[in-house]
Structure formats: C-alpha cells, structure tokens
Amino acid sequence: MSSIDPSQPRKIIHVDMDAFYASVEQRDNPDLRGKPLAVGGAAARGVVAAASYEARAFGVYSAMPSVTAVRKCPDLIFVKPRFEVYRAVSQQIREIFAEYTPLIEPLSLDEAYLDVTENLKHMPIATEIALEIRSKIKDITGLNASAGISYNKFLAKMASDLNKPNGQAVITPKNGPVFVERLAVKKFHGVGPATAEKMRRLGIETGADLKQQPLEFLTKHFGKSGPYFYGIARGIDERRVRPDRVRKSVGAEDTFMQDIDDLDIAAAELKPLTEKVWGHCHTKGFSGKTVTVKIKYSDFTQATRSKSNAVPFASCEAILDTATGLLATVYPFRRPVRLLGVTLSSLTSETGKGDGEQPQLGFDL
User: Fold this and answer.
1) 182 CB-contact burial (10 Å; exposed 0-12 / middle 13-18 / buried 19+)
2) Average pLDDT, stretch 59-73?
3) Whole-angstrom distance, CA of residue 330 vs CA of residue 294
4) Is the peptide bond before 332 cis (omega within 30 degrees of 0)?
5) 230 and 218 in contact (C-beta within 8 Å)?
6) Is the Cβ–Cβ distance between 199 and 191 less than 8 Å?
7) Burial class (CB in 10 A: 0-12, 13-18, 19+), 353
8) 318-336: per-residue pLDDT in tens?
9) Whether 18 contacts 164, CB under 8 Å
C-alpha cells in the first residue's frame, strides 16, 4: 500500500455488531428468536452482559442488575454466556476485515475501527466497503452489523449508532462540525456520566457549548482530556487507527452470592481471580509491574488500591501476596463486600516491549 496523502481526509469505518452476544444465542437457538433475551446470570447478584433488541424495548440494557432487568421485563429469558463461541465468531469477523485493510483496531469482540483510506480492494468509496463488509458478515456468521463512516474515529463511532440495528450512516467533512454542535455532550463517545455531569455544572450541555470554551479552560478542568474535547467540539480527531495498540491491563472480577465482611474469606476469593489473570499473561508471555485490587461494597460504592514494582511480577504467588496485602489496607471494611477484582497493568513482554494485542481484557467469573 502506498503512503496516504496527509492533506486528504481519511476514510474510517467503525463496525459494531448488533446485540452481539444475544444475537449469537438467538442464531444458535431458534426458540430464542423474537423473544426478550439477556446473556448473563439470572441469580440475585447477576448482571446483564448483553440484551437482545426485544429486551431493550422494555428498557433492559447491558450492565444492569438482573433483578432490575426482570422487574422491567418479567418474561426475560436468561442465557449463560459462551465466551469461547463469541471469540470464535469475532475471529471470523476479523478475517473479513483483513480482506480489506491491515489497519484494524479492535475495541472489543464486537467492534473495531478500520482505516480504508487506501485498501486492499482498491475501492474508492468507503460506504460501499462498509456495505460489502456487513453483507459478508451476514453471509458468513448469520449476524447483523451496523457501521459508521467518517473522516475520523470519533465521528465514525458516533455514526455507527445513528441507524442501528443493521444499518449504516455517513458523517462527511462538511457535516461533521455541525453534527457535533447539535449533539448533547452526554452522548459523546468518551464522555461518561461523571464527566457529562461536570460539564453540565460548567454550563456545557451541547457540542456548541463545548466549542465556545477555550483550550486553557478545558485543560484546567479536564486535564489531559482537554485538548481532545477541544478538537472533537470542532469535528477534529487526529487519532490514527492503531493495529498495534498496546494492551493496557488484564483483569478479572467476581460478584459474590453473599456479601463478605470477613478478611480471610475475602482474601481467599482473590486466589481464583489472580490465577485467571496470571494464567492469561503467562500463556501470552508477558507480565506487569502494577497490581490493582478493586473492592465494591454492598451499597455499590467502591475503592481501589494499587502497588507497583520496579520489575514485572514473576509469579502468580507474588501477585496474590500483593493483592492480599492491598485488600488488608481497607479492612475493617466500611461495608460488606459484594465484588472483588484483580488487575495487572504496566504490562511488558519477556523482551521488555509492550504486548501488542488489543487493550483492556476483562474476565467475569
């Protein structure tokens, strides 16, 4: 592929599978089709990992407690997740992407950015590439995908939500700034509830409000994110599609059937989490220098404690010892504990280089 002219707008596609986990389950079990479905645990402490569009019509969404989901949709059907199947389907989709471009940046199993400014098919129109990709995904996997096409990652991501499910949308360089001005900042990708609330307190509720703020103001209130917000308010996002994006962390967490208020019992729960994290790292040939323990209490408040080494952790036992020590620093617990998590970050490979896989892998036990 020849070098891309930096003066020309890039052609970025964001592909997002529609209700991915739930759609796989409905594909594989015809009895579930057309019915409100949640992938996740139905137990009192369960959480919805994914919801079908039939369930979403009742207000059921991912990350919702299962008890809340059932309250909203009494006929909701729960299915246990099959991550090995989802990973296999994700690999099929990735292989389709690779027919068009090597510039693929996976965000998760069900979504990715593709830079098709110059592509392996020599197709000049990105919308036609997106249509072809979505058609191939349907033919090979039986699943629907939506897509957003634009000249940068932020707008491609926003565009992929415009015509969901099973649709696509384009935001052109001419329309990008106007689109952003009219959009509520709480709908911006990368602006979570806490940041949106902070912006609201500062009088920023739309893209137009954000655009009025000088860079110095945004940097003062939002730190390193200030320049990013300044740019996207003008439809500008210089981030490249990064196929070699470095993994940031590997983590595992577990929600308990009953809250825990005993330190020894809580410490014992760290062992399977640590083994899960270390097992993945060891298989891939890398480790990390920072261990973080996440503690979520019965009232859903949470705390984190971290410790970093000068050199990567060399064994599962070393990580477990560190995690246990970190947990002890918050005992006596201010509330009974409903969830614990262990994360390894500051990752390096055996050669001292960052691991080149997709970022932020999480395991739910």
Assistant:
1) exposed
2) 91
3) 11
4) yes
5) yes
6) yes
7) exposed
8) 999 999 999 999 999 999 9
9) yes
Burial class (CB in 10 A: 0-12, 13-18, 19+), 363: middle
Place of tokens 């990350």: 63
Q: Where do the H-state alpha helices sit in the chain?
A: 20-28, 53-56, 66-72, 83-98, 126-141, 153-160, 176-182, 193-201, 207-211, 215-222, 226-232, 263-284, 316-328
Helix and strand numbers, DSSP H then E, in the chain = 13, 13
What six digits make up the tokens of 285? 């040939």
**Tokens 């000249």 found at:** 151
> Please, what is the average pLDDT of the chain?
89
Instruction: Count the residues in the chain.
Output: 365
- Separation CA 362–CA 365 (nearest Å): 10
37-47: average pLDDT: 81
Is residue 111 part of the annotated active site? The answer reads yes
Cβ atoms 113, 75 nearer than 8 A? no
DSSP letter (8 states) at residue 360 = -
Chain CA centroid to CA 196, Å: 18
CA distance 24 to 293: 33
340: enclosing H helix or E strand: strand 337-349
Per-residue pLDDT at 195 exceeds 70: yes
Angle, alpha carbons 316-321-323 (nearest 5°): 95
Token duo for residue 84: 């090995």
Q: What is the DSSP letter of 206?
A: B
pLDDT at 352 over 80: no
Evaluate whether 297 touches 327 at the Cβ level (below 8 Å): no
Estimate the crossing angle of helix 83-98 against helix 20-28, to 10 degrees: 110
Q: What is the pLDDT of residue 4?
A: 52
Select which of 25, 54, 105, 111 is catalytic: 111
6: which residues sit within 8 A by CB, 6+ positions away? none
Residues 6+ apart with CB under 8 A from 271: 320
Whether omega before 165 lies within 30 degrees of 0, making that bond cis, reads yes
Position with higher pLDDT, 202 vs 193: 202
Determine the angle formed by the axes of helices 126-141 and 83-98, rounding to 10 degrees.
140
